[in-house]
Amino acid sequence: MRIASFNINGIKARLPRLLEWLEETQPDVACLQEIKSQDDGFPAAEFEKIGYGAIWHGQKSFNGVAILARGTEPKETQRRLPGDDDDEQARYLEADVNGVRIATIYLPNGNPQPGPKFDYKLAWMKRLRAHAGGLWDLEMPVVLAGDYNVIPRDCDIWAKDAMRGDALRQPESMAAYRQILGDGWTDALATHYPQGGIWTYWDFQAGAWQQDHGFRIDHLLLSPHAADRLVASGVDKDHRGREKPSDHAPTWIELTD
């Protein structure tokens, strides 16, 4: 079972690239972030044509998440991250697909920091950790996939001193991520690439792609029941180099049946 995460950075603008990737790689589940589409504008019919069922949680102009499943319909289990009834941003969606509980996550960026946006990021991560604890108690395979907007380690960025002032690399952000791992969740890519050096994001500016100045912010975290089935993980890097791409590359895992 291949489960992928892809921050598409505008589903309407990148739809040709997204359909191309789906048809070439055929993931069983695709967790999308930053679809930047209201619910009524989501192109579900385009995915149905190539055999994917879909659920989505949209928002006008920014944010937005979706889950696609090949040959089946995802069974929604949670819309919006619990813990703050006033939070209306479309950043979390969860479903069951073929016996696996899967969440698509678009964690807040947090810039500029310090400030209210960074405070919101840390509060959101605290809520995520609390909700993940409930998922843990289900004792079933769970995958928390998405754009976490956290660079966990120095080896997860092209130069260890780059972006030190950014919210993605603040000690508080990194510590909050480590707390989730400390609860027993497995970072799939870090497991298979402990030395780092594998990127999931390259900025559109300053020739970042051409110079391979990237970093890793797209993560798939696995519960023990999922981690026991993990056999492979990787990044479809070549899709970042195609015409009019997202600034992220699809990131994926494979679980045994």
Percent of residues in beta strands: 25-35%
CATH topology: Deoxyribonuclease I, Chain A
Taking the alpha carbons of the first and last residues, their distance comes to 6 Å
CATH architecture grouping? 4-Layer Sandwich
For the largest beta-sheet, the strand count, sense and barrel status come to: 6 strands, mixed
Please identify the structural class as seen in this structure. Answer: alpha+beta
What value does the average pLDDT take?
A: 97
Strand order of the largest sheet: 3-4-2-1-14-13
Radius of gyration: 17 Å
Series of H and E elements: EHEHEEEEEHEHEHEEEHEE
User: Which residues form runs of ≥5 with pLDDT under 50?
Assistant: none
Domains, number? 1
Helix content range of the residues, please?
Answer: 10-25%
**Counting H and I runs of at least 4 residues, what is the number of helices?**
6
Question: In a few lines, what is going on in this structure?
Answer:
With 257 residues, this protein is an alpha+beta fold.
Explain what the structure shows.
Belongs to the DNA repair enzymes AP/ExoA family. Its cofactor is Mg(2+). Its EC number is 3.1.11.2. By secondary structure, the protein is of the alpha+beta class. It has one domain: Endonuclease/exonuclease/phosphatase (Deoxyribonuclease I, Chain A, 4-Layer Sandwich). The chain is built from six helices and 14 strands. Helix 3 runs parallel beside helix 4. The longest helix is centred in the middle third of the chain and has 21 residues, at 116-136.
